Amino acid sequence: MKQGTQRARDTGFFAHPSFDGHEQVILAHDAETGLKAIIAIHDRTLGPALGGCRMWPYADENAAIDDVLRLSRGMTYKNSLAGLDYGGGKAVIIADPHTDKSAALLRAFGDAVERLGGIFITGEDVGISDRDMEEVATRTAHVRGIRANGLGDPSPFTAWGVFSAMQAAVRYRLARPSLDGLHVALQGLGHVGSRLAALLHENGARLTVSDIDSERLDEARRRYGASVAPVEDIHKTPADIFAPCALGGFLNRKTIPEIAAGIVCGAANNQLLTAEDGPFLRKRGILYCPDYLVNAGGAISIAPPRRELSAEQMKARVGRIGDTLMQVLSRADSEGAPPERIADRIAEERIAAARQGGHRASA
Ligand code: NAI
Description:
Elements lengths: L23 E7 L4 E9 L5 E2 L2 E4 L4 H21 L5 E8 L8 H13 L4 E2 L8 H7 L18 H20 L8 E5 L3 H12 L3 E5 L3 H11 L2 E2 L12 E4 L18 E2 L12 H7 L3 E2 L2 H4 L2 H6 L8 H8 L2 H15 L3 H18 L7
Parallel strand pairs: 3-5, 3-6, 4-5, 7-8, 7-10, 8-9, 10-11, 11-12
Antiparallel strand pairs: 1-2, 2-5
Helix pairs in contact: 1-12, 2-3, 4-5, 4-11, 5-6, 11-12
Bound molecules: 1,4-dihydronicotinamide adenine dinucleotide (NAI).
């Protein structure tokens, strides 16, 4: 996205393949609690950097750096396309949420966010719950997605946005008025995936699901009559829609030829492993609904600094994701370009216009 950020003499961090002219990348460490976090601020042209905090037992530091660089860049695009006056940032904590999480560690992370003085505002992501964020909020005001200043957990709004996008995608691709009678292969039954499963079931869709957590599978079987696919085979399910709602990078050279659904629409961030994977999906005739467009519901719900809308009003706002997707898909077809390129272009145009207008967030 940014010009002139890679130079031949950059051989270390600045030459990292996922580095994209990020404004700041901060390492936060606390010896007492064992906190090891990385906060990446990608771009603040539209406002302070807004992005969640992920806790994950990364295999090594490079995997964490790669994730935070990619996710923070994604937030710049997500916030821009969603029309929010925020830039993009993200935090990752290198830890296992099942064994390493403690209130003290979360508070130490809160201190690290507070030290940034408001240029970065955070919320929950994978491995972090809204309750965890309440702990973080005991140390910093720069937290969203908690009951104290808004509608709380963003996941239901993310699920609602993905659901609205699916409705638009089936109207566009299958000329179907609703999801009734359609078959969705859903990967990941976490905060977002479980709520999406409920919405799909309520609206008459048939579900095949996968997760690494067998309790979640049992619940989906019991509550929604879902069929279960092995983790490595969910994308091969002959469904109408494949919905990746676990981790990123799942759409790649190996998996794309195996996808049996005609539409890919899900909540996971950074679904495409490389930039070539979008055009590859298109070549295979699969309609890819750009991840950061369809999963923006959570960001939209936490964006207001105070509770301004009721949950119903917020759902109506988030539901506009379906309209934006329609515009992107029809522009993609008329220009013969993959949908994610069109989404990128719209997001970049808004940032470029703000830059030209001299708009710059103050800290
Ligand atoms: P979560 O951590 O609550 O759920 C992830 C689920 O995926 C868990 O049930 C986990 O067991 C499962 N899983 C992990 N590896 C798997 C695999 N190989 N196959 C199948 N299942 C697997 O996370 P959450 O919050 O539901 O987020 C899901 C995705 O959506 C993430 O990529 C996240 O970044 C993205 N997202 C979430 C938002 C939110 O509001 N929570 C907002 C925007 C994006």
